[in-house]
Write a structure and sequence with these properties.
Elements lengths: L3 E6 L5 H9 L17 E7 L2 E7 L10 H15 L2 E7 L6 H11 L4 E7 L6 H5 L11 E2 L8 H8 L18 E7 L5 H9 L17 E7 L2 E7 L12 H16 L2 E7 L6 H12 L3 E7 L6 H14 L7 E4 L11 H12 L5 H14 L4 E2 L2 E2 L1 E9 L4 E7 L6 H15 L7 E6 L13 H21 L1
Parallel strand pairs: 1-3, 1-4, 4-5, 5-6, 7-9, 7-10, 10-11, 11-12, 16-17
Antiparallel strand pairs: 2-3, 8-9, 13-14, 15-16
Helix pairs in contact: 11-12
InterPro entries: G_ENGA (IPR031166), GTP-bd (IPR006073), GTPase_Der (IPR016484), KH_dom-like (IPR032859), KH_dom-like_a/b (IPR015946), P-loop_NTPase (IPR027417), Small_GTP-bd (IPR005225)
Family: Belongs to the TRAFAC class TrmE-Era-EngA-EngB-Septin-like GTPase superfamily. EngA (Der) GTPase family.
Subunit structure: Associates with the 50S ribosomal subunit.
C-alpha cells in the first residue's frame, strides 16, 4: 500500500496550490476564493524514487453549518485515511482561533503531523511563523506554494522515513474503465457517484454548483478496476458568469475526453431540456460511449412519467443505440442496472473487427443497396478496415467516395452496428478514394503517330467538304 499524505487546514491557506506543486499537475482548481475545494481530490506523486498518494481537502474550522459541515466531514475522512498529515497555515494571516482548534484535534490522533507555513513570500519568514510554535506541532516548514519555494525541502523532510519505490506513471491512478458522470447542476450526479461507490465519497448538498472540480476516484467492483469521475454541473453558456464556474466547465469537458464511457444524468422532474441535448452532443463529438440515466424517477405520478417517456422517444431519436435507465440515485432504485449497460458500451467502443470480415459485410451491404450514381458513374466501395477504437473508426476505400451522401453513410453505419452488435457507442466512418496514378501526367505521343493523326484529320475535312 502506498502511504497517504493529507493536506489539512482552513479555507484559502493554499492547500490546492501545494497539492498541484507536489503532484506536478493542475488537477486541483486554484483561485483566491475561500471554500473553492469541497471534495477530496486524490493524486499520485513521486519524490526521489518514493511514491505516495496526496489528498487535497476542503477548508475546515470556519463554520459548522450548511455545506461547510459536509466539507469538514470530507476532511475528517481524509485525516483517518492519512499516514502523514500536512497542517497548512497562512503565514500572512497569522495564527487564528480556527488554527488552534484544528491543531488540538490533530494532536489527539497520534499520527505524524507536520506544520506547513505557506505564503512566506514577501514577508520576513522567521518573524511571520514565530507565533505558530505555540500550536505544539514542532518547527513550521516555510513554503511559498504559488512559486514552488520550499516544497522540495518540505518533501525531503516529510518523506525521509518512507521506503524507496519504483517511480510510477503520473496517470497510473486512472486504472481500468474510466467512467464520467456528467449533467446539469443539481440533477443528482454526486448522489449517483456515492451510490455507485457505496460510500459518502463526495459532498452532496441541495444547492446547484456544489461540485466545482472533476474528482477522479479509483475503485474496484467484483474484481474489475474502475475510475469514476464526478464532474461539475454545466449550465447554458449565457448563465455562466463566475470565473470559477468557467474553470469547472473546462474541467468537465476534459473529463469527458478522459473517459471511456459517459453517464449523462438528467432530472426527470424538470424534463429533458436543451442543455441536456448539448451535453449529449459534446459527448458524441468526443466520440465517447454513452449511457443515459433519468434520475429522480421516484415519487412521480403516472401522468408525469408518461410525459417524460414521450419526450424521451421524441428527443433521443438521434441516438437510438444509447441505453436509457430510469433510476433514483437517492434510494438506489435501478442504479445497479447501469453496470451491464456500461460494460456493453465499453466493449462495443473497443471492439476489434478483422479486415476480411469488415470487407465481406461491406460487400453484402453494397450488393443489397447500391450507392448512387455520380455524373453517370456508380460510386464503388472496394474494401474496409478498422482505423481506430473508442469510438470504432471504419475506413472504407473506393472511387468517388467524396460524393457518398449522408443517407448512404447512415445506412452503412446501421448495417455495421446491427451485424457486430455495437451498442452504446457512436461509430465513425471515413471514406478514402484511391489516387489516380496518371493524374497530372501528360502522355508523350510518338511524332510519327502525331503526323499520321494530322494527315488523317486533314483527309477527313477534305472528304467532308466534297460531300457538302
Amino acid at each position: 500500500m502506498k502511504p497517504v499524505l493529507a493536506l489539512i487546514g482552513r479555507p484559502n491557506v493554499g492547500k490546492s496550490t501545494l497539492f498541484n506543486q507536489i503532484t506536478k499537475s493542475r488537477n486541483a482548481l486554484v483561485a483566491d476564493i475561500p471554500g473553492l475545494t469541497r471534495d477530496r481530490q486524490y493524486g499520485d506523486a513521486t519524490y526521489e524514487n518514493k511514491s505516495f498518494i496526496v489528498v487535497d481537502t476542503g477548508g475546515i474550522g470556519e463554520s459548522e453549518g450548511g455545506i461547510d459541515a459536509y466539507m469538514a466531514e470530507q476532511s475528517k475522512t481524509a485525516i483517518e485515511e492519512a499516514d502523514i498529515i500536512l497542517f497548512v497555515v497562512d503565514a500572512r494571516a497569522g495564527l487564528l482561533a480556527s488554527d488552534e482548534q484544528i491543531a488540538r484535534d490533530l494532536r489527539t490522533l497520534g499520527k505524524k503531523v507536520h506544520l506547513v507555513a505557506n505564503k512566506v513570500d514577501g514577508v520576513h519568514a522567521e518573524a511571520a511563523v514565530s507565533e505558530f510554535f505555540k500550536l505544539g506541532l514542532g518547527e513550521p516548514h516555510h513554503v511559498a506554494a504559488s512559486h514552488g519555494r520550499g516544497v522540495q525541502q518540505l518533501l525531503e523532510d516529510v518523506l525521509i522515513e518512507l521506503p524507496e519505490d519504483v517511480p510510477i506513471d503520473e496517470q497510473e491512478h486512472i486504472k481500468g474503465l474510466r467512467l464520467a458522470v456528467i449533467g446539469r447542476p443539481n440533477v443528482g450526479k454526486s448522489t449517483l457517484v456515492n451510490r455507485l461507490l457505496g460510500e459518502e465519497r463526495v459532498v452532496v448538498f441541495d444547492m446547484p454548483g456544489t461540485t466545482r472540480d472533476s474528482i477522479y476516484i479509483p475503485y474496484e467492483r467484483q474484481g474489475k478496476q474502475y475510475t469514476l469521475i464526478d464532474t461539475a454541473g454545466v449550465r447554458r453558456r449565457g448563465r455562466v458568469n463566475e470565473m470559477i464556474e468557467k474553470f469547472s466547465v473546462v474541467k468537465t469537458l476534459q473529463a469527458i475526453k478522459d473517459a471511456h464511457v459517459v453517464v449523462v444524468v438528467l432530472d426527470a422532474r424538470e424534463g429533458i431540456v436543451e442543455q441536456d441535448l448539448h451535453l449529449l452532443g459534446f459527448a458524441l463529438e468526443a466520440g465517447r460511449a454513452i449511457v443515459i440515466a433519468i434520475n429522480k424517477w421516484d415519487g412521480m405520478s403516472d401522468y408525469d412519467r408518461s410525459q417524460v417517456k414521450e419526450a424521451m422517444e421524441r428527443r433521443f431519436d438521434f441516438i437510438p443505440w444509447a441505453r436509457i435507465h430510469l433510476i433514483s440515485a437517492l434510494h438506489g432504485t435501478g442504479v445497479g442496472d447501469l453496470y451491464p449497460s456500461i460494460h456493453r458500451a465499453y466493449e462495443s467502443a473497443f471492439t476489434k473487427i478483422p479486415t476480411p470480415k469488415l470487407t465481406k459485410i461491406l460487400e453484402d451491404a453494397v450488393e443489397q443497396h447500391q450507392p448512387p450514381m455520380v455524373s453517370g458513374r456508380r460510386i464503388k466501395l472496394r474494401y474496409a478496415h478498422m482505423g481506430g477504437l473508442n469510438p470504432p473508426l471504419i475506413v472504407i476505400h473506393g472511387n468517388q467516395t467524396d460524393h457518398v451522401p449522408a443517407a448512404y453513410k447512415r445506412y452503412l453505419e446501421n448495417v455495421f452496428r446491427k451485424v457486430f452488435k455495437l451498442e452504446g457507442t457512436p461509430i465513425q466512418i471515413e471514406f478514402k478514394a484511391g489516387a489516380n496514378p496518371f493524374e497530372g501526367r501528360r502522355t508523350q505521343v510518338d511524332p510519327r503517330v502525331a503526323d499520321r493523326k494530322r494527315r488523317f484529320v486533314q483527309k477527313f475535312k477534305k472528304m467532308d467538304k466534297k460531300r457538302r
